[in-house]
TrEMBL record, chains A, B, C, D:
Short name of one Pfam family: Semialdhyde_dh
Species annotation: Paenibacillus typhae
Catalytic activity: N-acetyl-L-glutamate 5-semialdehyde + phosphate + NADP(+) = N-acetyl-L-glutamyl 5-phosphate + NADPH + H(+)
Name under which the protein is recorded: N-acetyl-gamma-glutamyl-phosphate reductase
Stated family: Belongs to the NAGSA dehydrogenase family. Type 1 subfamily.
Taxonomic classification: Bacteria, Bacillati, Bacillota, Bacilli, Bacillales
Gene3D superfamilies given in the database record: Dihydrodipicolinate Reductase, domain 2, NAD(P)-binding Rossmann-like Domain
UniProt superkingdom: Bacteria
Residue intervals of the Semialdehyde dehydrogenase NAD-binding domain: 8-147
Enzyme Commission code(s) on record: 1.2.1.38
Primary role: Catalyzes the NADPH-dependent reduction of N-acetyl-5-glutamyl phosphate to yield N-acetyl-L-glutamate 5-semialdehyde.
Pathways per UniProt: Amino-acid biosynthesis; L-arginine biosynthesis; N(2)-acetyl-L-ornithine from L-glutamate: step 3/4
Compartment(s) of residence: Cytoplasm
Gene: argC
Signal peptide: none
A cellular component annotation (GO) from this entry: cytoplasm
Length: 351, 351, 351, 351
């Protein structure tokens, strides 16, 4: 079942940013071997044609998307495919006996109707929505052990939920007061071309988009509702920052008591005890996106304001690593019963 | 009193970003002549030594800061000086019979004790705090006519207050619920050098700073309190965007009714009727910072969310123009009884 | 023939970067009124739909491209159209009695065969190639007076030729030794969308393109051959810089004598005497692109190296202003017999 | 002598960009253990105070610079110190029995007088200049085996020399015709603060600096003279690109024959046969800086121009990796007799 004792992995969507990041990160994983890089649009081409940085690193040509063939070459598949594509493909891969970590958003919402409302695609069959384990590792990691199918969280929800859950679960903040002001680098928009990603339109520019309409809203609400035990509705705004990588979620909530920054630091450090990839900063210190760039870390800091009774929580990730490819590998590690940090020991690239 | 029928202007702090922007904008003002560019640190040098872009445009050498000499050369002085410096200098300039538009923050807060708490400098004498007209043109413009001394608003307060005041005044939003998530380009930090403005530290980076501690907080609260008639306390966060110019204020507030985006558009268009520099976008359209870059515009858009009962207001300016030098000239226009747009007909530079 | 005594101008290609820059710059021209903004692809739409920064500035809707209609509305037409389009359109506009300043490259090469080799389009009729005056203002400005048709120079040739011509004409450098290493901001690639202008592909990246193949090579060679009286062949490399605006041409040539930097400064200052838009820096000082950003200046500096017997000449412009829209207006000024600086008094935007 | 069988390494200059990059890269080296991070200016502090991205990764506090103490803790020292500092420190470290890889420029020039002319510091004692092996791995790698002291090449020379040497050695290009137009990201300027690295001065700006005066000129000439057997003098220009990482060297030379791009590809592939970190692109394909970012690769491409008889060679590296910390580790690998790629298997970070 393995090549030289390694788990064989295929990557569908190898010509997107999530796909090439999986390739980068998996180069140094001691227990995984990439045996197929797959692209429906560029099958037959060498991957270095579109991604010259992989010259001499990935020699194999791009394969096409044939579930049966994939099953012959791989044990696990990462599906870094657009929304709507995974909905159809993943069931076939699972039927073929493959393990799947899905990086699209197709299996994150448990309610198919809600999916269709926000994503504007036909929902996958309910049984697969049911089967999918939502892979927010530091919160639901124990559910991943031994399963065959993980739905990898969205980039914004990862930064946001890791920043909110300990306080929500502890009852320290009022769920109905939560406002999330999120900012992302441009790589989050993917490699597709349109005026919205034109350099001259984005450089020296800061813009809001999809305000109150982003498909990550129901994902965040679903988890906060699960954690808090009550229906949570949030205000969520997304902005584009003129940079390539990085997400910051700046979150506001009314506090249920006079908690200090030190209180939050201790609460969160306890909650994330033993989880290497979440780093809680000292009281009064807020993280910046570059401090996690290229790595799988999520860094969190706090400002508690006695004047207003509100806490401001700042959470940062690299959107392509912890927000996509890195957490997907972390999930596979958990599925396989390996240490979650395996092959992910990347120090942030600074500066 | 004038050179060739023009008002003679001096600029103190000509080697800061606010100062050179005053120089740029005043080149095309039909009724103002720059007769002195002043810098305490570089007196005697040609300005093009530090600012080669002014080669052949400003031939005069930098003058020193001597109120009596300034009074001999100018009718009006723009003080683009650091906090703490204006506090001492402006009274002398006023005593010397000069008109003053002050771009520092020293005369914005009416309460000297509050100034000292937030600014950590000794407050100016109370009579000058009293005398200073807070020059938020589209709100307090009528107070500027004929006066000798204007305190020019801060960059963040300009974007924020223009975005909030019509709704606060109309009673459409709950003042106690206001949360302001603001973002600024790096030029806002000034031309001083420290690790915090190092290119390699800021590029590809997004960071929060001075959270709940920024000296613009009391300025915003003072005006909102004035407008609403009740004591207003806000949550205010500032972030640095890896770009040179531009501020976006993303503002959140609970609504007192089921107002639509179109309702807000109409309310604001009515409020700012006749004021050329505030542009209210169509319902559902949000402005980006580049759309006002290099110009004196403040553009505002809305997203009203029935799910949460909150409105999100987005307001953008060029921090050095409408947030500093441009509004200062607009204030001078109002002081002199000229049209507020005089000499400020700059179309945004795009892309 | 004029509106309120002003020359009526139409802009074809108003939805490209050259077109909107013409709109920006013409707002402050005292003798020109824009009476038609034209776009074949977006006719009937308000221009602010695609360019929100023009909200409230240009109220008129986009017109279609009909030469007869244009002739009824305008006296002069700026054609900021892609290569191949102007070749067909300009003859019709001239036949309709309009003055034309063409910003495409279609009429720059006098030899139609050479045009077809480098541009891969059918050349315009020879009589129009003949008629077109090559509008490098500071070199051929006197030829523009009173003519009806100007072919506006390319962005790279403008920076390059202004930097080389005085030395070539004086015989100080060896024409056969000229090597031009040019760098441009991304706006030079236009507003069309493709992977080559994707933000995430260009940001934090520096790349060479069209090396030895750029269509501006024959344009540069044609002029240097004209100026030197001998056939000149140059090595010319173009690179993309992760910024929006600006071109730098770094030029190398063997010297025919032991000239100092001061010698070059004096030679060039004499050559460009009376021409406001070319600024020759002091000996040993080299200009940077930001020092001309948003303005019509071309700044030039020198490093003469006794060790190698070569001079390095650095020339910078804003590619959309002096490299396109600004020089086009300068050319119209010259055609009309006005001062060349008319309406172009824009101080560089710094920082 | 080792900790758990690993070579113990100390890093002097741990609070500069070269130092923290050594820390990043060494995290994954299987045979090296960092046992001391040293900073003269910040001794006693936790390193995460100045570099929060290292939170939880490097727990140890910064040590001071005491050669005897270093010798007690380490087997090898990387000196990532400013010019002038290494000149004094390295002899002490060598006397204390340590192996040294020096990243300053102090030991690169064999002629002390030439060093003093270009660096403006007192030269190190001649015996150490003599002892230092110039560690351009792919060219002089065999000299590194078993030695105690390597002088790590400069960033510009690394990109430039790897791009020129095969052609010079083969006699395909004329050494006296070589012109090097080099461009670097801002991190090359180091972490020191001055107006020259201010974000607002560099962003949206492209500038030349130290033209014909850069201290890397004699380093390049020394090696080309060694390789060609004749005294070589080059024209060398350096520019700053508004990005953090990356160097491109665009090199021009007259050819001694009618060589094609394919000829160059084959010549270079043969020269660098077996060296993983130099990647020669296909004929007609030129590399961009982002394609090697974060990695130890040097990618090279060619454009041979029959019109002018010149070849244009483009060579790119990450200035902090292959241009500093990465090549330093590669040198240590060679000193120790290990594979040169050991611990350096970093795929470029893209996008």
């Amino acid at each position: 079942m393995t090549v030289a004792g390694k788990l064989r992995a295929a990557i569908v969507g190898s010509t997107g940013y999530g796909g090439v990041e999986l390739i980068r990160l998996l180069q140094n994983h001691p227990d995984i071997e990439i045996t197929s890089v797959i692209s429906s649009s560029s099958a037959g081409e060498p991957i270095e044609l579109g991604f010259p940085h992989l010259t001499g690193i990935v020699e194999r040509k791009l394969d096409g998307v044939e579930p049966a063939e994939i099953a012959g070459r791989a044990d696990v598949v990462f599906t870094a495919t657009p929304s709507g594509v995974s909905a159809k493909l993943v069931p076939q891969l699972l039927e073929a006996g493959l393990k799947v970590v899905d990086l699209s958003g197709d299996f994150r919402l448990k309610d198919g109707a809600e999916y269709e409302q926000w994503y504007k695609h036909t929902a996958p069959p309910a049984e697969y929505l049911e089967q999918a384990v939502y892979g927010l590792c530091e919160v639901y990691g124990e559910r991943a052990a031994g399963v065959d199918f993980i739905s990898n969280p969205g980039c914004y929800p990862t930064a946001t939920l890791l920043g909110l859950i300990p306080a929500v679960e502890a009852g320290w903040i009022k769920p109905e007061s939560i406002i999330i002001d999120a900012k992302s680098g441009i790589s989050g928009a993917g490699r597709g071309v349109n005026l919205g990603v034109h350099y001259a339109e984005l450089n020296e520019n800061f813009k809001a988009y999809k305000v109150n309409k982003h498909q990550h809203i129901p994902e965040i609400e679903q988890v906060l509702t699960d954690v808090s035990g009550e229906k949570v509705t949030v205000t969520f705004t997304t902005h584009l920052v003129p940079m390539t990588r990085g997400i910051m979620s700046t979150m506001y909530a009314g506090m249920n008591g006079a908690y200090s920054e030190q209180d939050f630091v201790e609460l969160y450090r306890k909650y994330y005890s033993g989880r290497s990839f979440v780093r809680i900063r000292e009281a009064g210190v807020l993280p910046a996106t570059k401090e996690v760039s290229g790595s799988n870390y999520c860094d969190i800091g706090f400002s508690a304001d006695a004047r207003t009774g509100r806490v401001t929580i700042v959470s940062v990730i690299d959107n392509i690593v912890k927000g996509a490819a890195g957490q997907a590998i972390q999930n596979l590690n958990l599925m396989m019963g390996w240490e979650e940090t395996r092959g992910l020991g990347y120090t942030p690239v600074y500066p």
